[in-house]
Write a structure and sequence with these properties.
Blueprint (H helix, E strand, L loop, with lengths): L1 H20 L13 E5 L2 E3 L5 E9 L12 E6 L2 E7 L5 E6 L5 E9 L9 E8 L6 E5 L30 H11 L2 E7 L7 H14 L6 E5 L5 H11 L5 E6 L2 H8 L4 E4 L13 E2 L6 H4 L1
Parallel strand pairs: 2-8, 9-10, 9-12, 10-11, 12-13, 13-14
Antiparallel strand pairs: 1-3, 3-6, 4-5, 4-7, 7-8
Helix pairs in contact: 4-5
Length: 291
C-alpha cells in the first residue's frame, strides 16, 4: 500500500510540474481571460484611407479596464486587411482603403493571444462620395421616449438605449434612404456615461433590432454645441452635403439653423420649444413633406 501511495504521489508531483512548465496555450483556453471588443463606425470615401477604431476591455466581476499589448485583426468580407496592437488604454486604430461605395460591415477580432480569449467586435464603414446627400437623424427623434440607464454595480452589464420606436419611423426613413439620402445617426455619448464605443455599439444594436436602414452612427460628446462643432468639422472635411437634420431637441435643430441649413423637429415639441425657423412634423409620416 505504501508503494502504491508513493507512486501516486510521485505521479501527481510530476503532473503538476509538467503543467507549471507547459508553455502558454498548451493548457487550452482555460488560461485566457474573457474580454469585450467594441468597434466604432467610420466615415470615408472610396480609395481613401479610413481608420477603424476598436477598444479591448477586460470582462468580469471587477471594473472593466483597457487591455494593452494585445494583437487585433481587421476583417472585411472575411479577409484580414490590417493588424494592430492595442495601446495601454486598450484602443487600436486599423487602416483600410475601401474601393467601393456602400455601408460595409467590418469585424475586428483578437488574434492569437496567451492572455485573452477569442473575442470579436462588429462595426460599419460608411463609404460614400462627398457629393451624396446625407440626412442627419438624432437618435432621440426615432423613439417615443429615451431613457438613460442608471449606472449599475455589475461591470458586465451593458447600457442599452431604451425606447419604443416612433410609429412609421423605420418605414419612412427607409423610403428616404432607398434612392436618395444616406443616413447619419447622431448619438450623444452622455447617454452612455460618456463612452463613445458603447454608445456606438448599443445604438447599432437598437437600430438593427427595430429594422432601421443601415447607416453611419456618429457619436458626439456632451454639450449643446457638440454637434454644431462636429457639423463644422464635417463640412471642413468636404462633407458639405450634410444639409438637413431631423431631430427631437432644440439644440440639435439650432445646430443646423445657425448655419443656415434645414432642420425638422419630430414629434411636435412643446409650445415655444421649437426654434423660429425650424420645420415641425407631428409624426414621421409628415417628414417627407417637410424636406
Amino acid at each position: 500500500m505504501r508503494e502504491v501511495m508513493r507512486h501516486m504521489l510521485r505521479t501527481a508531483c510530476l503532473l503538476s510540474l509538467a503543467i507549471v512548465l507547459s508553455p502558454p496555450g498548451t493548457a487550452g483556453a482555460a488560461g485566457t481571460a474573457p474580454a469585450t471588443l467594441l468597434v466604432t463606425d467610420s466615415l470615408s470615401s472610396p480609395n481613401q484611407t479610413v481608420m477603424v477604431e476598436a477598444r479591448l476591455m477586460s470582462r468580469g466581476p471587477a471594473a472593466p479596464a483597457g487591455l494593452g499589448g494585445e494583437p487585433l485583426e481587421l476583417l472585411v468580407y472575411g479577409k484580414v486587411v490590417a493588424t494592430a496592437v492595442t495601446g495601454e488604454d486598450g484602443t487600436a486604430r486599423l487602416p483600410f482603403i475601401p474601393k467601393a461605395q456602400g455601408v460595409i460591415p467590418v469585424q475586428v477580432r483578437v488574434a492569437e493571444s496567451p492572455r485573452v480569449a477569442p473575442t470579436e467586435g462588429l462595426g460599419h464603414l460608411a463609404i460614400w462620395e462627398r457629393r451624396n446627400p446625407i440626412v442627419a437623424v438624432e437618435l432621440a427623434a426615432l423613439m417615443e421616449a429615451l431613457h438613460e440607464k442608471k449606472a449599475v454595480s455589475d461591470a458586465r452589464s451593458k447600457p442599452e438605449p431604451e425606447g419604443t420606436p416612433m410609429p412609421d419611423a423605420a418605414d419612412e426613413l427607409g423610403k428616404l434612404t432607398q434612392f436618395y439620402y444616406r443616413v447619419m445617426y447622431v448619438v450623444p455619448s452622455a447617454s452612455f456615461g460618456g463612452d463613445r464605443f458603447q454608445a456606438s455599439e448599443s445604438s447599432r444594436a437598437w437600430l438593427k433590432l427595430h429594422k432601421f436602414p443601415t447607416g453611419y452612427v456618429l457619436v458626439v460628446p456632451a454639450g449643446e454645441q457638440a454637434f454644431g462643432s462636429k457639423l463644422d468639422e464635417l463640412h471642413a472635411d468636404g462633407w458639405k452635403t450634410v444639409k438637413t437634420g431631423i431631430g427631437r431637441t432644440k439644440a440639435f435643430a439650432e445646430a443646423f439653423l445657425q448655419r443656415r441649413l434645414d432642420a425638422v423637429m419630430v414629434p411636435e415639441p412643446a409650445k415655444g420649444e421649437a426654434p423660429r425657423k425650424a420645420k415641425v412634423a407631428k409624426e414621421w409620416k409628415e417628414i417627407r413633406k417637410k424636406l
